[in-house]
Amino acid sequence: MSEPTRIGVLGRADLRRCAELERILFPDDDPWSESAFASELDWGHYYVGAYAGELLVGYGGLGMAGKPGDMEASVHNLGVDPVWQGRGVGRALLRVLLARADEHLAQVFLEVRTDNAPAIGLYEAHGFATIGLRRRYYQPSGADAYTMVRPARVDRTVENTP
């Protein structure tokens, strides 16, 4: 099995595979449909995929809100094919999403299942801290979620400019 060869912007041709991975990854929590992903793209949210050859093995999405200088970002989803988990695919996708948020000096929010220790560890390693608990956030399973935030990364050279 080859390693992912690239990370690129997600296209409409990838949405069926995204929905397939959602059903595998989140069978008890109302997985996103192909049309839900299409709506995300229609709204202009930023989505990237990890590819092994032509096969999509992971995806991640970031929404941005606010005006320049006062932006906020939210990781809408991050999913990796179970066969590819533990190989750095999620980390690579997250880094691309965070780089996009950093371009806009945006703080980044996300929700993660409280029982998803690998994801929580990944987020903490990238500067996220838990700021809240959302009881029964995931439906229909009723699983709880932590709300996490990573402060905006501010370019110090810009910050110190008079």
TrEMBL record:
Residues 5-153 form the N-acetyltransferase domain. The keyword Acyltransferase applies. GO terms for molecular function: N-acetyltransferase activity. Keywords: Acyltransferase, Transferase. NCBIfam families: rimI. This is Ribosomal-protein-alanine N-acetyltransferase.
